[in-house]
């Protein structure tokens, strides 16, 4: 341990120096994957301990982002598919999410709940909405908390909201169809008014988005990390930023 700590410190400083010459992404999205597998490989019989360790890691990540100048972070905590998990696993996970959102609210960050909140238990949905309202005027790091989230559901909700808004204006379907463009839909996404994610990170070694930010990720850079989320370190984050900085972002040109 005495040898390992100085080496880790040296490597971390080296990565930081390398970041000095690259652009830091404005918006980072993270799929926090591997909590249950981390718990099992760590010898814990109760996967709740993995979710709890993963929740603690969130605050490390947000601190790193705040320090380095990232403006928006989107964290996928629970998908719509996750809502079908066994009750004895889902209920403790929802309690951990509620505790996490409460802590985020008290940290001075701007909390933006996103997802199909109507699918969540009333207590969870209410707490998330209250956190969003209480921090709406905060000027710090924007933290999108994706709970009960699915990319296809988000697009469907955006189109539905657009249709309702245009209907209230008296716009006919034919008229809307003639002038509809992508920006009209983007204005009704959960992330409306925010820059699209520059960098999307997924932990645990899985190399797929699973529907995360389907619309917004058209020009995002992807970084897949082998480590399980609770074991994600600052050097892992710095490596992701270094990889992002080394890419030639041409945006389809």
UniProtKB/TrEMBL annotation:
Its EC number is 2.5.1.-. Its cofactor is Mg(2+). Binds 2 magnesium ions per subunit. The active site is at residues 33, 82. GO terms for cellular component: plasma membrane. Gene3D superfamilies: Decaprenyl diphosphate synthase-like. GO terms for biological process: polyprenol biosynthetic process. Substrate binds at residues 34-38, 51, 79-81, 85, 202, 208-210. One of its GO terms (molecular function) is Z-farnesyl diphosphate synthase activity. SUPFAM superfamilies: Undecaprenyl diphosphate synthase. Mg(2+) binds at residues 33, 221. The keyword Metal-binding applies. Keywords: Magnesium, Metal-binding, Transferase. HAMAP family: ISPT. Catalyzes the condensation of isopentenyl diphosphate (IPP) with allylic pyrophosphates generating different type of terpenoids. Homodimer. Belongs to the UPP synthase family. Z-FPP synthase subfamily. This is Isoprenyl transferase.
């Amino acid at each position: 341990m005495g040898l390992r700590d100085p080496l880790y410190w040296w490597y971390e400083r080296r990565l930081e120096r390398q970041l000095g010459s690259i652009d830091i992404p404005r918006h980072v999205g993270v799929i926090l994957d591997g909590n249950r597998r981390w718990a099992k490989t760590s010898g814990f019989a109760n996967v709740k301990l993995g979710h709890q360790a993963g929740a603690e890691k969130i605050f490390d990540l947000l601190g790193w982002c705040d320090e380095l100048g990232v403006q928006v972070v989107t964290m996928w905590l629970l998908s719509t598919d996750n809502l079908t998990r066994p009750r004895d696993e889902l209920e403790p996970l929802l309690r951990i999410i509620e505790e996490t959102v409460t802590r985020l609210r008290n940290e001075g960050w701007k909390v933006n709940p996103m997802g199909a909140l109507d699918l969540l238990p009333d207590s969870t949905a209410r707490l998330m909405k209250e956190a969003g309202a209480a921090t709406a005027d905060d000027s710090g790091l924007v933290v999108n908390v994706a709970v009960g989230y699915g990319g296809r559901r988000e697009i469907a909700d955006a189109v539905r909201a657009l249709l309702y808004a245009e209907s209230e204006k008296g716009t006919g379907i034919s008229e809307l169809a003639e002038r509809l463009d992508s920006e009209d839909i983007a204005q009704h996404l959960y992330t409306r008014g925010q820059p699209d994610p520059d960098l999307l990170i997924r932990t645990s070694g899985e190399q797929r988005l699973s529907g995360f930010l389907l619309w917004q990720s058209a020009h995002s850079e992807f970084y897949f990390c082998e480590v399980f989320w609770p074991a994600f370190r600052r050097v892992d984050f710095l490596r992701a930023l270094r990889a992002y900085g080394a890419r030639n972002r041409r945006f389809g040109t």
